[in-house]
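Entry 0007
Protein: DnaJ homolog subfamily C member 7
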Amino acid sequence: MATVDFDSSADPEMDLTSDEELEREAEGFKEQGNVYYVKKDYAEAFNFYTKAIDLCPKNASYYGNRAATFMMLSRYREALEDSQQAVRLDDTFVKGHMREGKCHLLLGNAMAASRCFQKVLELEPDNSQVQQELKNAESILEFERLAEISFEKRDFRMVVFCMDRALEPASACHRFKVLKAECLALLGRYPEAQSVASDILRMDSTNGDALYVRGLCLYYEDCIDKAVQFFIQALRMAPDHEKARLACRNAKALKAKKEEGNKAFKEGSFEEAYDLYSEALTIDPNNIKTNAKLYCNRATVGSKLNKLEQAIEDCTKAIKLDETYIKAYLRRAQCYMDTEQYEEAVRDYEKVYQTEKTKEHKNLLKNAQLELKKSKRKDYYKVLGVDKNATEDELKKAYRKRALMHHPDRHSGASAEMQKEEEKKFKEVGEAFTVLSDPKKKSRYDSGHDLEDDDMNMDFDANNIFKAFFGGPGGFSFEGNSSSGPGNFFFQFG
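Output (structure tokens):
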């Protein structure tokens, strides 16, 4: 059987020489790393510090140098690991403790940072730099505390303010950035929130909180299908993410209820659609954009059900949620037109036309302005008590009735003020009949023109019109003169 011979005469001096050579070589790598560090070529500095560590893995300063390089490359978690390794090897390594504390601070771990800075003060009580860093850690803790209280109060602007202040010394803290982004989304500042979340995901594509915020922005912008995809992805990365779970459930419920309402509306089941939109509005009060659409949809249904005042109120709620929602302005303007609130309609159509200068919007505005102008004139149809499609016979019948009702002789026993009022009404009845019984004048009146401005003869005598109807054979006749006094009249039947 073959035997294996072992050389048991190892030379201690040879091992010592070998260790010294390794240390010299490692020092050479460190010096080269220092040269590249001064030149700000941190990638090359990292390579040489790593070579030094590979040769002498128990040298604390090498880890400290590489930690400094990681920090310059904004790789703070790796810098933290090297700093921690450095102080494990040498608990008196001040720069190691300082860098560990700084990494904790940049990553938002203020309590851990404070412990590191306190260790530095034990080793160097007069270190002014670390005293300032301790103050930064204390300010972060205070802003965290205030942000937590503000979030519970739904004061999201204050939370954003606190996170901005905290991120000044803790610029690499994803937790602070995500909280800021979430509050920006809750404030409706979606592009800003998306930007913050996207920055985080570029550095860490598995960050469940950032995925949740991206989904939240899409959800609040009424892109519900895409939002659900992000919520599901967030839950894959963090199965216990309760906010993502709740948002996903709300998104699905809101979409389903809204689609049910749309289906009922298309089928003409307006009462059912109204109720479904109302139920959808209770699902998530924070979803501003979707709720604005739901209010506008309910307003459309309300107008179909002749609930015009309710429809106006729903449009107003939609506009309050989204001041740029053109469809809500148009719907409310139409409801104002239907309820003859023309000034309000003009105001809404002006808002729409200022935003979207289309031919259609211009015509809607002109029509509302015309109706407003017409509403400020005497309403001859109302004076006679007829509708706009009254026939010639209906106009005559209405005139006879109103003329007899307001003739001054009918009110001879009334007060002077009442007599004056009735005389005015009597003249208006004659004026109304004069215009509406003349096809040309009626057409001009209906189109909103001022008849007096159109050189149309508007001179008439109310008494002459009255006599034309009631005087002579076959009609009623008032006879009287200035000496006989008002009230002396008789009916003559033919």
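Curator remark: Residues 1-10, 472-494 have pLDDT under 50 and may be disordered. The chain has four domains: 24-142, 174-240, 252-375, 380-470.
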